[in-house]
Design goal:
alpha/beta; Udp-n-acetylmuramoylalanyl-d-glutamate--2,6- Diaminopimelate Ligase, Chain: A, domain 1; UDP-N-acetylmuramoyl-L-alanine:D-glutamate ligase; Protein-Tyrosine Phosphatase, Chain A; six-stranded parallel β-sheet
């Protein structure tokens, strides 16, 4: 494969497409393969739909001499190499971020902050894997002044691979907890994987931002000559947590009044601190940064606040792992007010041999608090009943719906949390 020729095709296109359902006129189409599909078979169709050219790796779909077909050994590898080649043409700061929880919220907050000063490129949605990161990089153009690249991982080595593609110049880790335990071989594997971002930045002389209130992250600071520390008194950026009941309130250096966000739960304070610190480093005025934070409204089932009749619902059903589940439950349990409280907890996926132990631990955590109603739904969460037997249990969300409809809940504060595959957002309509 001649990367220069492929780059010429890219520069003459209107952008990248990997989905025939979303092809725009002039797109360069990459025919990716998956477990249940092979987009090579859609090469001709994508050209009919307006693609300027197609990148394929199946010779049987190649038309010799046709300039609209670009044959490579492996389409995914070609996409990644093209992204890295494009990255090498860029001179702007590239901020990489990863972590077990809060990646997308931190990314969205940071994008809001930096956009007050710069033309900012940022990962769209959660396109943070071996396909999403290349697509993010290839969406950066000459008008952008700074970029934010979110990096996710399911297995050891994933972050290292993404760093070699994106070559970040700056970076931070939101936290290191119990996520994707199955693919990473346990907590030690998670630590190794997430710190691959810091290892890359250390090897390239990049700049790291470290939340010094997180003992695991602070322990990593000694590896660097001049890490940017926050949010303690005396650090590069001072930010103080005030409360989260339910919204995160904070105070920040140089601003007298307490600031109130639309973010729910104390665990979101770290995401606020990440964004304010990186913004300050890049010269964004603190007043503008704070305004960007307090006007940001979470969406897409990430600590969304919904009202249903007289009930207030915290919908946190985008994803779940043992770390995020624990902080969400504890934060919810410690909220005060006149409403009764109800927990709706679903399965956590990708835990492998740790599944039974980690679900049982949730029951143990819940037993520490007085919560008016606790409902478990799913197959794995049944393990939590051994530690919290008085919970109502439903083997699947569908069977739970009938109970919700019949119960006609009134004046409750409700937390709904579970892994994406549980689709617990579907319960809201029945409350």
């Amino acid at each position: 494969m001649n990367i220069s020729d492929l780059y010429t095709l890219f520069k003459n296109s209107t952008g990248i497409s990997t989905d025939t359902r979303k092809i725009a006129q002039g797109n360069l189409f990459f025919a990716l393969k998956g477990p249940n599909f092979d987009a090579n078979s859609f090469a001709a169709q994508s050209l009919e739909m307006g693609a300027s050219a197609v990148v394929i790796d199946d010779e049987s779909h190649h038309i010799e001499g046709n300039e609209h077909y670009f044959l490579v050994e492996d389409v995914l590898s070609a996409l990644q190499q093209l992204a890295n080649f494009h990255r090498s043409q860029l001179t702007i700061p590239i901020i990489g971020l990863t972590g077990s929880n809060g990646k997308t919220t931190s990314k969205e907050l940071l994008n809001s902050v930096l956009s007050t000063k710069f033309k900012t490129a940022s990962t769209v949605g959660n396109l943070n894997n071996h396909i999403g990161v290349p697509l993010t990089l290839l969406a950066i153009n000459e008008r952008h002044q700074i970029a934010i690249v979110e990096m996710g991982a399911n297995n050891q080595g994933d972050i290292e691979e993404l760093c070699l593609i994106a070559e970040p110049t700056h970076g931070f880790i939101t936290n290191i907890g119990k996520a994707h335990l199955e693919g990473m071989g346990g907590p030690e594997g998670v630590l190794k994987t997430k710190t691959e971002l810091f290892q890359f930045l250390k090897s390239t002389g990049g700049k790291v931002f470290i939340n010094a209130q997180d003992p695991i992250l602070f322990n990593l600071a000694k590896r660097f000559e001049a890490p940017i520390l926050y949010p303690r008194k005396g650090d590069f950026c001072e930010i103080h947590f005030v409360e989260a009941n339910p919204f995160v309130k904070f105070s920040v250096e140089g601003i007298q009044e307490v600031c109130t966000s639309h973010l729910i739960g104390a665990y979101n304070f770290g995401n606020v601190a990440n964004a304010l610190t990186v913004g300050k480093f890049f010269g964004v005025e603190m007043e503008k940064s704070v305004e960007a934070i307090v006007t940001y409204t979470p969406s897409n089932m990430r600590s969304q606040l919904l009202e249903k009749r007289s009930n207030l619902i915290i919908l946190d059903a985008y994803n779940a792992n043992p770390s995020s589940m624990e902080v969400a439950i504890r934060t919810f349990a410690e909220m005060t007010g006149k409403r009764q409280k109800m927990l709706i907890i679903g399965d956590m996926y990708e835990l492998g041999r740790f599944a039974e132990e980690e679900h049982a631990r949730l029951g143990e955590i819940i037993s520490e608090y007085e919560i008016d109603k606790v409902c478990f739904t799913g197959q794995l969460i049944a393990s939590a009943l051994s530690k919290y037997p008085k919970a109502l249990y439903f083997p699947d969300p569908f069977s739970f719906r009938n109970w919700l409809q019949d119960s006609r809940l009134e004046d409750y504060l409700i937390l709904i949390k579970g892994s994406r595959g549980m689709r617990l957002e579907g319960l809201v309509d029945f409350i």
